[in-house]
Write a structure and sequence with these properties.
409 residues
Length: 409
Amino acid sequence: MSDARWLVLLCASRVGFSLIFTVYSALLPVLIGAWQMSAADAGLVQSGWHAGYLVSLFAAGLLTDRIGARRTFLLMSVGACVSAVMFALFATGFWSGLVLYLLAGLAAGGSYTPVLAMIAQRYGAAQRGTAMGWYLAAGSFGYGLSLIISAALAPWAGWRAALALSAAATIVGAIIGWIALRKYREQKLHVSEHLPWLLSARRLWQNTPAKLAIGGYSFHCWELLGMWAWLPAFLVAAAAAQGGDFSGSTLALGVGIAGLTHLVSVLGSIAGGTLSDRIGRTRVILIMSCASLACSLSFGWMLGGALWLITAVAILYNVTAIGDSSVFSTVLSETVPPNQIGFAFSVRSVLGFGMGAISPWVFGLVLDWSGQGEPGIQAWGLAWCSVGIGALLGPLLTWRLHRHLATCR
């Protein structure tokens, strides 16, 4: 199978796996009422998904080094399908939603870490950033597709139908992934010459570029996952502020705009990966992260403004927030030896998605604390600032990485 066809199939598989990632945030304005949740409760359910996801990413990385990326992907795909169906069928309130969404996240990492390892194996340095950019772009496309479909489906078929659709998409993604990998053969070095975990941890700790890349990625996740969790709800509030009330039409409009931002962010992932192959990894990360931070610190204060302007900033926000994700993955794959890639991605996932799991909950706490009932401009402004403040150290660590790599050359 050619490299291009192989990557296209994996990207299509990623789209299917990605729908469940944002289906809850798409339905959040409806589920807060249907499940009788506070904003903090709603954020905690999203955090539960991220907590499960980070565990699955860590497990996927370790398994990739032990049994190979292909087998890890296929095994965890089965678990992802089963858990997605359970969440769609049996989530009925806060506690069941929290537990079942966490379980859904526990197997979802099999479509991410192992595939990044296989891309790192198959593509050389001159094409690796572009290939990873396309794969992450496929995820962004799936996130946007989920939001748009949920916005159209929920008002007339109900939120349960949207959950069922995301579960069905997970099954389709697993089937396409199996087709892409049925004849794939692992590189023997990556599978067989693995290191003991403690030795891998010691060497990773001594690897300054890898440590800085992991640290920068962790603060990046705080911003990215907090933004993804609450962007639909904020845009619904912005749409309601134009019309004066919440209705099915404002839900569809707000969530639909959020879906549009994810679809456009596909270009951010592709552009970030391609630019990193041409002008350097750390330069792209610095440009993207500084732009997204500016959006985090100003976005919430725009509530009540022109919806077209809020939409434009939301698009810029999502494009720049995701634009450096693939670049972080590429940097890490280039700063550790091949037999440590899985372990390095695992550590990065625990730290990054650990911070990302906390961010939506903190956002909800700030929204509850400052809103005192119906959130207004001040509540949303402070909540979005919590996303930006938590990510401030990311560009500083990236600048240190840039200086370190320049010195090593």
